[in-house]
Amino acid sequence: MLRIEGLTKRFGDKNAVDNVTLSIPKGEMVGVIGRSGAGKSTLLRMLNRLADATSGSIVCEERNVTTLKGASLRAWRRDTAMIFQQFNLVGRLDVLTNVLLGRLNHRSAALTLVKSFSQDDKIRAIAALERLDMGHLLAQRAETLSGGQQQRVAIARALVQEPKVILADEPIASLDPRNTQVVMDALFRINREDGITVICNLHHLDIASKYCDRLIGMAAGKVVFDGPPLALTTEIAAELYGIEAKDAGAEALDALDAIAASEAQRAKQNVA
Ligand SMILES: Nc1ncnc2c1ncn2[C@@H]1O[C@H](COP(=O)(O)OP(=O)(O)OP(=O)(O)O)[C@@H](O)[C@H]1O
Ligand SMILES: [Mg+2]
Predict the structure, then answer these.
(1) C-alpha dihedral over 216, 220, 221, 223, to 10 degrees?
(2) Nearest C-alpha neighbor of 24 from the set 72, 65, 68
(3) What is the pLDDT of residues 15-40, one digit of tens each?
(4) Which atom of ligand 1 is nearest to the CA of 44?
(5) pTM
(6) Which of 7, 36, 174, 241 most suits a substitution to test ligand 1, by most atoms within 8 Å of the C-beta?
(7) What is the pLDDT of residues 185-228, one digit of tens each?
(8) 39 C-alpha to center of ligand 1: Å?
(9) Whose CA is nearest to atom 28 of ligand 1?
């Protein structure tokens, strides 16, 4: 369970994240939605401590994340794996080595210096790649892969970190629709099979609604919606996306209609 209380991040005279209070139970798949500049990335970065909060607290299982230092901060970062829009792989290294980099913070400083990975590390890395259907490409240089393949390698790297939480910042923003589905399916499977909490920033409401148990809608740093996708109304969708994204709003409402229809269908089948 992650408890976020009064979390604020100020840049100059502007609150990028403004007094956010949330509880996220273990194993939930959460989508953070909202227009550009709403504060989604800043929130995620504070959760991983890539950015420090101006005020407020983050507590996870008795750990006060906002004040961690040294070894305990490193342990927290291991527990919260980040996935980025631009994949952040080392292009000239092969796929397997990129995944092994996720094991670095499980090893002693001395072993890290000699850059030798144990057999156990390698077995884990290969298993993670196979799970993402990428085992056959383990010797290929990362920079030669397609975007969807690179993101799957980044997810494998996150997995070998053995995290409790995966924080994904727009993981599909650079992908085509087919790869979007492959990557979101992978995150969903990891969430359901391993019980890893997934918190995912997403621009597109239709994708967020399809995959997430819960949506957190942000506008100007504040949480303006928190609930299951079906509870999102037209008014809130409009508030979340505003005039910036008339199309995204229309698309989102179509998606909500589709979800409502499939829920109705399912309910009918359950009755029958
Ligand atoms: N390092 C920084 N210095 C100054 N302002 C910043 C910094 N990082 C973020 N901001 C500002 O904080 C606000 C929230 O930014 P953030 O990147 O969290 O938004 P976002 O919801 O992730 O947007 P996007 O959908 O475009 O990724 C924006 O107004 C942004 O300009
Ligand atoms: Mg962002």
Answers:
(1) -30
(2) 65
(3) 999 999 999 999 999 999 999 999 99
(4) 18
(5) 0.89
(6) 36
(7) 999 999 999 999 999 999 888 999 999 999 999 999 999 999 99
(8) 6
(9) 37
